[in-house]
Specification:
Order of helices and strands: EEHEEHHEEEH
Radius of gyration: 19 Å
Structural class: alpha+beta
């Protein structure tokens, strides 16, 4: 992946078998997810940051391209060091809380989890949701001080929930347009 021109690319491999069930050919295609990630990760809301990461915490989308864990599947298999969301948490109890929230989302026990964590030395309100179609989490964070009004915490939580819902809606629309329709067409052509 060329980090200067593309954020990430998803490669889809299909193995074609002959009539005896033996591999006969491999078809490969790539989908550029740059527009998808840019459209969803970048936020116009002050103090709000959105991060995409996989089941293992490897960062798949971030406004700072250097934070993305390129080749995360290969790194996980080879036990290489990865850029994960857990690297930014200051306290072990915050990592445990994030992992519990991730498990609840994957298990279908909730659709959105809200957490209050310390991220790189600063308290952040976290909204977390799961996109099962691509097996990624969307984490939206904002500092509690970004809230205005009499009850700062309630305003911040409301702002976080609104931002997370907007990000989720945008992600689903962009995902459908840029990835799912192409994968469906590729699958139909492969069959």
């Amino acid at each position: 992946t060329d980090r200067h021109t593309r954020l990430t690319k998803v490669w889809i491999n299909t193995i074609v078998h002959d009539e005896r069930g033996k591999p006969a050919a491999i078809a490969c295609s790539g989908l550029d997810l740059t527009d998808f990630i840019n459209g969803v990760v970048s936020s116009d809301l002050p103090g709000v940051m959105t991060v995409f990461f996989d089941r293992h915490g490897a960062i798949q989308g971030h406004q700072d391209v250097t934070m993305i864990d390129f080749a995360s599947a290969r790194k996980a298999a080879g036990k290489e060091v990865q850029n994960t969301v857990f690297n930014f948490l200051d306290r072990p109890e915050d990592e445990a809380a994030l992992q519990r929230a991730m498990a609840a989302l994957v298990g279908g026990k909730s659709e959105v989890e809200a957490l209050d964590l310390v991220v790189q030395g600063r308290r952040q309100l976290i909204g977390l949701t799961w996109l099962p179609e691509i097996q990624w989490f969307i984490l939206t964070m904002t500092p509690p001080t970004a809230a205005v009004g009499g009850n700062g915490l309630a305003s911040a939580v409301l702002l976080l929930i609104v931002a997370l819902n907007l990000v989720l809606l945008a992600a689903l629309l962009i995902l459908q347009k840029t990835v799912v329709s192409r994968v469906v067409r590729l699958d139909a052509l492969a069959k």
